[in-house]
Amino acid sequence: QVQLVESGGGLVQAGGSLRLSCTASTNFFRFNTMGWYRQAPGKQRELVASISCAGTTNYADSVKGRFTISRDNAKDTVYLQMDNLKPEDTAIYYCNYRQWATSDFWGQGTQVTVSS
Fold first, then answer.
1. Which of the chain's termini has less CB crowding within 10 Å, N or C?
2. Quick check: 25 and 77 in contact, CB under 8 A?
3. pLDDT tens digit string along 25-83?
């Protein structure tokens, strides 16, 4: 079982920045895809960004140009740098680890609240 520990959420004003971190307890981190998802009240969970083991990134249209996903394989950690935050970015953000493209593991979630 892979444990994912997230940190970095909080309350910020519109236009501000936050950086989320997620550390995975696995020896296979560097070989697998990592992602960040979010879920706002009353809405389905959606993909925010992902990064493959090769470093290929993918972003939701709503965050392109504002969010940056990165990974540090030496620390088994993935980051989400969020700039120019908007009130509509308010959600619980979840870290995802997809092992061998078949098994999904999730973090506990971290709240991000953007005030207008």
1. N
2. no
3. 999 999 999 999 999 999 999 999 999 999 999 999 999 999 999 999 999 999 999 99
Give me the torsion for CA of 79, 83, 87, 91, rounded to 10°: 0
Distance, CA of 11 to CA of 22 (rounded, Å): 18
Q: What distance in Å separates the CA atoms of residue 75 and residue 84, rounded to the nearest whole number?
A: 27
Q: Which residues contact 112 (CB under 8 A, 6 or more apart)?
A: 9, 10, 12, 18, 20, 38, 82, 85, 89, 90, 91, 92, 93
- Reference 80, options 103, 57, 101; nearest CA is 57
